[in-house]
Amino acid sequence: MRKISLLQIDNLYSAKLIKLAVAEWRLRQQSTFWGFLWTLLNPALLFVVLYGLFIKWLGKFQPDYAVFLLIGIIQWNYFASATSYGLGAMIRKSHILKNYPLRPELPVFAAVLSAAVSHLLELAALSVFLMFYTKTISLAWLALFPLELSFLALICGLALGLSRFMVFYADTERIWGILLTAGFFLTPVFYPLNIVAGGKHAILVLNPVARIISAARLIMTGNGPVPAADWLYIFSFSAAVLAAGLIFARSDEGKVADAI
Fold first, then answer.
1. Helices marked H in the chain — which ranges?
2. Tens of pLDDT along 136-190?
3. SS3 at position 30
4. Of 134, 139, 203, 239, which has fewest CB within 10 angstroms of its CB?
C-alpha cells in the first residue's frame, strides 16, 4: 500500500481549494468583462449615494471624506459579500460533499476566496486613485498585507459557522441579511468613530470589522501607524474566530453530509 506524505496531502488540499475557488469566481463573475466591471461599479454607486447624502454633515468632522468613505465602503462590501456568499457554499456544493472525499470547509474557503479576488481588484483600483490623489506611494501600504490576511481569517471563520448553520436552518440567510443591515450602521463605514461619544464608542470599537476598517484608513491615508493594541485585537480575534469556525464545521461531518 503506497504511503502518502503530509506534503502530498497538503498539495492535494491546495489543489482542490484552488480548483473550487476558480469555479466559484467564474460563477460569480460569469466569465465576462461586465461581471468584472460590476465588481468595481457596485461600491462606486454606493459611494455616490452616500457621499451626496452625508458630505455636508460628516464632511465637517472628517477631512478627505471622499477617501474616508471609499475605504469604508470597499472594506464593508467585502465583509458582507464574502460572508453572504460563503454562507451558502455547503448547500451549493452538496453534490460534491456527498459523493467525493472533501473536507466540509473547502467549499466555504473557495467561496470566500472568490470574493477576496474581487476585493483585491477593488483595492487595486483604490490604490491607483490614491496615487493620483495624493501623488505619493507609501511603503506603509505594505501593512495592508497582514491586515487583509487577518480580515480573510475573520471572514472565513464566520462563513464556516454560518454555512454550517445554513445546512440545518434555512432561515440563516435571512437572519444574517438582517444582521448585516444593522451592522452597516453600527460599523463606521460612512461616519468617523470620533463623533460617537461615551459608552456607545466603547461598544462600537469591540467590533473587529470596525477596527479593521479604521486600520485600513490609517494605512492607506498615511495618517499615522495603527496602534499596537488594535493589531493585537485584530490578530487574536480573527485567529480565534477562524479556529472556532473550523472546529464547528468539522464536527459531526456525517450529520452534515446527511442533512445536505
1. 6-29, 33-58, 65-87, 89-92, 94-99, 105-134, 144-168, 172-186, 198-204, 208-221, 228-250, 253-259
2. 677 888 999 999 999 999 999 999 999 999 999 989 999 999 999 999 999 999 9
3. coil
4. 139
Q: Which three cell numbers stand for residue 74?
A: 470597499
Contact between 160 and 248 under an 8 Å Cβ cutoff? The reply is yes
- List C-alpha distances in Å: 224 to 9, 160, 194: 43, 34, 16
Q: Is 144 in contact with 219 (CB distance < 8 Å)?
A: yes
Cβ atoms < 10 Å from Cβ of 123: 19
The model carries a pTM of 0.90
Q: What is the domain partition of the chain in residue ranges?
A: 6-259
Contact 106, 20 (CB under 8 A): yes
